[in-house]
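Lecture notes, unit on protein representations.

Consider one protein chain, 350 amino acids long.
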Amino acid sequence: MNGQELVSSSPRHPRIASDANHFVLTFENNRFASELFGQFDQNLKLLEQRLHIDARARGNSVVITGDVLATNQARRTLDYLYEKLQKGGSVERSDVEGAIRMAVAADDQLTLPTMEKKAKLTMAQISTRKKTIIARTPTQDAYMRALERSEMVFGVGPAGTGKTYLAVAHAAQLLERGAVEKIILSRPAVEAGERLGFLPGDMKEKVDPYLRPLYDALYDMIPGDKVERAITAGVIEIAPLAFMRGRTLANAAVILDEAQNTTAMQMKMFLTRLGENSRMIITGDPSQIDLPRGVKSGLVEALHLLNDVEGISMVRFRDVDVVRHPLVGRIVKAYDATYVAANEEASRQD
C-alpha cells in the first residue's frame, strides 16, 4: 500500500494510512478512541505485549509498527473493539484479550494475502435481556456455535474456561426465546454419596451447595427475582442426578455439570433421558475425577463411545482457553503436565 491513505466508505471503520509494516489508524469519535486505548493507554500496551508490536497513541490516532502479520492482527483487533464501542458496548481488558486471541487464531491457517483481505473479526455470542456474552477464545467460539446447532453437546476441559457459564447462558437464552419451556440443572453430589436424604432441608436446600456455580451463572443472565419465581414455578428445576431415573426430559434445556464424577451407569441413564425438543449440555473436567479408586468415569467413557455419533458435538477446552486470571491458565498447565506424566507412568507399569 506504500504510504497511501485508505478511507473506509463506512463511518464505522477508522481511516487507515499504511505501508508494509506500519499502520496509522484514526478514529473519528474522540471519546470512543480514548476508551479504546484505555486508561494510560493500557489496552495498547496489552496489544504490544501480546503481538510484539509498537503501538503509540497520538490524539485520536494510533501508530502501529511491527511484523506485517502482527500489525494486521492489531488493526483488526482495534477495528472490532471500536465497533463494539459504537454499538453501545464497553471495552475491558478481557475484551481486548479475547479479540487478540481471535485475531491470531483466525490467521493461523491462512496465507498472508488472505490475511490482508480479511476485513473484520466475527465472534459467536449469547444474548439474554440482562447480558450479552461474546466468545473470548477460539474454543469458546466453537462451543457457542455447537450449542446452537447440536441437541447434545459435551464441553470438557479445565476450570476457568467458561464451559459451565456458557452452558447456563445458552439455556437462559433458549428459555427467553421460548425455544424451551424449562431449564433443568443437575450435578452428581459425590461428597454426599448421592444420599441426599441425610442432609437437612428440602430438596433445593440439600443440593444448593453442589449447584452454586450454576446458580451464580443464572443470576448473571436473569434478574434475581425472576430466577426465584422460576424456581418456585418449576420453570427452573433442580434435579439431583440420583433422582433422574425413569424420567423423560422434554421441551427443556438440561445441564449436567461436573460430569466427570458420574459413573458409567449414571451417565448412560442421564443421556437416555433426552426427550422431544430438548437440549442436553454435559460439562466436566476428566482431570478432576473424585470417584472412588477403580470406578470408571461416565464422562470419560461417553467421550470415547459417542465421539462419532451424529447429532452430538464434543468441544475440548485447554489451558490456553482459561479466561480467568492469567495465572490460572499457568496453574492448569502445570497440573495437566503432571497428570499426563502420571498416566504415562501408570500405563508403562501396566
